[in-house]
């Protein structure tokens, strides 16, 4: 993950459904020192040690 300075990303919740269905919610915390603007970064997706690719993320910080 290449998250911009002043932002942190953490796992917030997890859901398990029938069979192999799983969902994970992420939380992005933004420091008050982060200037308004658009920030783009990516998440790596890794499950049980196996890499599945990246997911783009765009966050817009407003004044």
Keywords:
67% strand; two-stranded antiparallel ribbon; 63 residues; elongated
What does this structure look like?
- The protein is mainly β.
- The chain has one domain (7-61).
- Helix content is 0%, strand content 67%.
- It has no helices and four strands.
- The chain is elongated and about 45 Å long.
Largest sheet at a glance?
Answer: 2 strands, antiparallel
Distance between the termini: 25 Å
**Overall structural domain count:** 1
Please state how the strands of the largest beta sheet are arranged side by side. Answer: 1-2
Set down the secondary structure blueprint.
Layout: E1 7-16, E2 22-30, E3 37-47, E4 50-61
Antiparallel strand pairs: 1-2, 3-4
Summarize the entry for a quick read.
The protein has 63 residues and is mainly β. It has strands at residues 7-16, 22-30, 37-47, 50-61.
């Amino acid at each position: 993950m290449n998250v911009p300075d002043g932002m942190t990303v953490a796992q917030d919740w997890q859901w398990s459904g029938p069979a192999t269905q799983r969902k994970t919610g992420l939380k992005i915390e933004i420091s008050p020192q982060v200037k308004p603007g658009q920030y783009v970064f990516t998440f790596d997706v890794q499950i049980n040690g196996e890499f599945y690719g990246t997911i783009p993320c765009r966050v817009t910080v407003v004044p």
